Amino acid sequence: MKQSLPTRFKPSTVSSIVALSLTLSSSLSFAQEAEQEGRLETITVTAQKRAQNLQEVPVSVTAFTGDEMAEAVIKDMYDLQTNVPGLGAFQSQSATNSSFSIRGVGTSSQNFGLESSVGLYVDGVYRARQNSMINNLVDVAAVEVLRGPQGTLFGKNTPSGAILVSTVKPSHDGGDGFVEATVGNYGLVNLSGAMSFSAIEDVLAFRATAFSSERDGTISDVNLGEDTLNDRDRWGARLQALYTPNDDVSLRIIADYSEIDEICCGAPVQLNNDKLSADGTPGSDLLLGSPLFGATILRGENFYDREVALSILPVSTMEDTGISAELNWNLDDNYTFVSISAYRAFDSYDEIDTDFIDADLFFTGNDAEQSSFSQEFRLDYTGDKLNYILGAYYFSQEIDLVYNIDTQSQFSRFFDVAVLPALQASPLAGIFNGLNGISALTGGFIAPLAPGSGEGFSFTHLAQQEHSSYAIFGQFDYQITDELTLTTGIRYTDEEKDLSTIYRELDPTGQQLIHADFGAAGAALANIGAALTVGNAPSSADLQAIAPLQTAGWGFPFVTANTSPRSNIVENLKDDQVSGTLKLSYQPNRDTLLYASYGTGYKSGGTNTDRIAEGFNPIFDAETSESFELGIKKDFREYDFRINAAAHYTTVEDFQANTFTGGGFNLQNAGDYEISGFEVEATWLPVDSVEVNLAWAFVDAEYKTFLAGNCWVAYTWHTGIDDPGRKNAGDSFCNRSGDRPGGEPKNYAVISVKKDFELSDGVYSYIQGDFSHTSEVILDGSNDPYAIQDSYNVVNLRFFMNFEEMDMDVVIWARNLLDEEYINRTNFNTPIQDGKLNAYMAEPATFGVTVKKRF
To answer: Taking every annotated instance into account, which residue ranges of this chain make up the domain TonB-dependent receptor plug (predicted)?
Structure first.
C-alpha cells in the first residue's frame, strides 16, 4: 500500500506565554468559522475511550500516529519525551529500571512495592510495571499522552496522567506490510517487519510483527572493555487475530513476547572525595586508591570521557509476555458492549556493582517476577445529546522479589580502615577492649573480638504480594446546548493486598547471623570479669551474650541501613477510594474549544520491599490528588495556525516519595506536594512547503510538607556546611518542605521546523530540525547544591525521502547532533563513600539511516 503524503500536523510543540495570552484574549474575535478549510489535519484520539477529534476533547492530549513516530525515528518512550511537553521518561540503575512522570508527578521503579503515577496502557490493557514499557515501539498505530488525573475511565495509578499505545490491527485488504532496517553509529542495527493476511475473507485475519535491536555500548570500562555499557540487545514479536463474523461483532486476540539482555547502566564519577573531609575524615578515593586496595580512581572532571571502572559489569535482563482478548459488540445503533481480558507476566533480573568502583566491596542482585490478570466490561452509549460509558473492572497481580547485597573479597579490609576506627573511638571501644582482655586472661579459651565483616555475607529480602482490585465507573457527556457540554464521571475502587517480606542476614555458610546486643554484651563482660576474678566459671547466659561479637559479621549494622537486621513484615491492606471528574466545555464553533475541569486521582499504598532505615514505617498509605485545569483549543484555518493550551494546578496528599540512601531506597508518604504550570502546543503552516511546531511546558513543583527527607551529603562532606533542613545535630533525615523534587525541570521547550520539497518526479522529501531546551534540573531529592544540572539544549535533524514508485521511505537522521553533554536527570551519593558522586549521563550524538519498504 503506497503511503499518502499529506501535509501533516505533528502535535509536538508550542509557543510562548505571550502567544498564549494573545491567543486567549483574541480567541473570541476569531469565533466565526473561516470559509476556507485550511490545511490543518484532523487528529483522532481515544482519550475518552471513544474515537474523537483531538480539538473537541476537553483533555490536555498529545497524540502521534505510527507514521509520524517512524519518520521521527522515535524508537521508544525515551525518544518520545522529546516531543511531548510535560512528559519525563528516563532510566537509571539498570535498563529495566524506568521512571515516567507527567507534569512533575512520577514514580521511581527502583522499589517493586511502588506502583506508577502514570497509567500505562497498550491496546487497552493496563501495564502494572513501568519497566514493561521500555522496549521498542514497533508497528504502532498511535500513541496518546494524557495529562492530568485520569481516574474515572482509566482507574487507579493515573494521578498524573496516562500513556495509551495502540498497535496496528490485522486487515483483510493487504498492502499494510513492511520491512524496516536501521543502521547507525555505535554499531546500531534495528530490524523490524509486519504483515497481515486474510484467512477467511472479511471474517478472519491475522497479523504478525517482529523486531530486534542491537547496538554497542556508549560507555567504556577501563578494565572490562570499550563501549561495553549502555548497549542494546532486545527483540520481540506479536501475533494477532481479528475475527469479524458480521458487521456488529469483532474479536481481537493479541499475544506478545519481548526480551531485553543488556549491560546497563554506567554511572561515571561526577565528584571525587580524594582528600580529607571538612571534619578530617579521609575520603574513600584516598583509601581505595591506595596500594591496600589498588582501585582505579577516575576523575570527576573527566566525567564526559564516558568511562567507568567496575569489578563486574551491570546486567539487565527482562522478559515480558502477555495475551489479551478484546470483544466489541454493537448491540444496536446506540449501544456497544466492550470486553477486554488480559494476562501478563513480567520477569527481570539486575546485577549491579553497587560500590561503583573496581574494588571488590559488594554487589547487588535483584530477581523479580510479576504476573497479572485484568478484566474490563464496558457499555458505551452514543446519542444525540447524551453519551455515556458504564463499566466494571477487575485486576489482580502476584509479585515475587528476591533482592540480595553480597560482600566481596575486599570488604573486610574496607571495613577495617573506613568503619572500624570510628567504632574504636566510640564508647563501644570499652566492650571491644574488655572482650580482648578477657580472651588474653583466659589464654584464648574465651575467644577474642572477631572481624566485624568479611567476604561472602549476603543480606537478602524475599518479598511477596498478592493484590486484587475491583472497580465500577461511569462517565456521562451531556450536551446542554449546541455549544455547551457537561461531563461528569465517578469511579469506586476497592482493593486488598496481602504482603510479606522476609529479611535474612546470612554468613558465608548460609547461616543466619546472630546480631549483637551491645548493652547486654557490656553487662555480660562485667559479670564474666567478676566471676573470673574470684575463680568462678562464667554463666552460660553471659557467654551467649558475647557470642555474636566472637563471630565474624557483628559490624555490618554500622555500615549502612541495608546491611542491618530488620523485622519481617506480614500485612494485609484494605482500601477503597472514590475518584471522579467534572468538566464543562464550550465550543462556540468548529474551530474553538474552551474547557474547565476538575479531577481526582488515586495510587494505592503498599509496603517498602527494600531494607529501610530505622524509624521508617514499612507500610505506606495511598496517594491521592486533586487537579484543576483550564484549557483552550483553537484553529485559525484562514492562517493555517493551531494552538492548544492548558493551565493546571494539582495538589497531592500523602505523596509516595522514594529516596536513595546508598544501596537501597526509603519509600514513605512524604506529605503534601503541589504542582502548577501550563503547556502550550502550536503549529503553523506559513506556506505550502513549511511547517513550524512549537511546544512549551512550565512545571512549578514543590514539596509543601516533607519532614523526613534525605539530607545533603556531598556538599556537607566537602564544605562543612550543614543541611539547613536538619533540625537537630545528628539527625539522619532532614526537612525538605519547600524544596523542588529531583529530576523535574521547570521549563521544557522544543521548536521544530520542516521544509518539504520534491527531489524529482515521484520522490517527495523534507528536512526537519528540532531544537529543545531544558532548564536547570535538581538531580536528587535532597536538593544538595552539588546535585544541579545546568540548562542544556539538544538538536535533532532528519532528512526524509519517499520513493513513490517503490513505496519506500529513507530517513537520514541524527539525534543530539551537536553532542550536548548533560546528566540524565539523576545523580547520587556513591554507596558507603560519602563525599563522592556518580551520575547517569545522557546518550551522545547518534546518527544513522532508516529504510522502510511497504508491501
So the answer is: 54-162
Q: How is residue 838 written as a grid cell?
A: 556518580
Within 13 Å, how many C-alpha atoms sit on residue 810's CB side?
Answer: 8
C-alpha cell at 587: 465550543
Please measure the distance between the N-terminal and C-terminal CA atoms of the chain and give it in whole angstroms: 6
Locus of grid cell 501475533:
239
Any idea which of 479-483, 542-546, 665-669 has the lowest mean pLDDT? 665-669
- Residue that is written with C-alpha cell 563522592 in the block: 836
- Could you tell me the CA-to-CA distances from 384 to 381, 387, 479, 585 in Å, in that order? 10, 8, 8, 17
| pLDDT of amino acid 13 | 33
How many angstroms separate the CA atoms of 606 and 60, rounded? 30
CATH topology of domain 17-409+457-507+558-854: Maltoporin; Chain A (2.40.170)
User: Residue 269 forms beta bridges with which residues?
Assistant: 838
C-alpha cell at 52: 474523537
CA distance 842 to 266: 11
SS3 594: strand
What are the pLDDT digits (tens) for 337-375? 999 999 999 999 999 999 999 999 999 999 999 999 999
Task: Indicate the pairing of strand 225-229 with strand 219-221.
Answer: antiparallel
pLDDT one-digit tens code per residue, 570-615: 999 999 999 999 999 999 999 999 999 999 988 888 887 777 766 6
Rounded to whole angstroms, what are the CA distances from 377 to 124, 330, 389, 680?
12, 14, 10, 35
Read off the pTM: 0.89
Report helix angle 518-533 to 429-441, nearest 10: 30
Q: Which three cell numbers stand for residue 833?
A: 563513600
The backbone region for 131, taken as left when phi is positive above 0, alpha when psi lies in -120 to 50, beta otherwise, is alpha
Cell of 198: 486474510
- For residue 11, what pLDDT is reported? 35
Q: How far apart are CA 601 and CA 99, in angstroms?
A: 19
Q: Is the peptide bond before 265 cis (omega within 30 degrees of 0)?
A: yes
For 411, the grid coordinates are 570488604
Out of 57-66, 310-319, 615-624, pick the least confident.
615-624
Structure-derived torsion over alpha carbons of residues 545, 549, 554, 557, reported in degrees to the nearest 10: 60
Buried b or exposed e, range 339-375, using 16+ CB within 10 angstroms: ebbbebbbbbbbbbbbbbbbbbbbbbbbbbbbbbebe
pLDDT given at position 2:
46
Q: What is the pLDDT of residues 647-666, one digit of tens each?
A: 999 999 998 887 776 556 67
CA–CA gap between residue 61 and residue 74 (Å, rounded):
18
Nine-digit cell at 307?
568511562
H/E element, 430: helix 429-441
Q: What is residue 627's three-state secondary structure?
A: strand
Q: Residues 6 or more apart from 554 whose CB is under 8 A from it?
A: 450, 452, 515, 516, 548
- CA dist list (Å): 647 to 535, 555, 599: 83, 54, 14
Amino acid 145 reads V
Cβ count near 705 (within 10 Å): 15
Contacts of 425 (CB under 8 A, 6+ apart): none
Cis status, amide bond into 711, omega within 30 of 0: no
**Which are the contacts of 225, defined by CB distance < 8 A and separation ≥ 6?**
none
The whole-angstrom separation of Cα 256 and Cα 242 is 15
The domain locations on the chain are: 17-409+457-507+558-854, 425-449+514-550
Amino acid at 750: V
What are the grid coordinates assigned to 114, written together? 511502588
Q: Centre a 10 Å sphere on the Cβ of residue 506 and count the other Cβ atoms it contains.
A: 17
Enumerate residues 6+ apart whose C-beta is below 8 A from 577.
Answer: 156, 492, 493, 602, 622, 624
Distances (CA, A) of 157 to 39, 67, 76, 679: 38, 30, 22, 22
C-alpha cell belonging to residue 204: 478472519
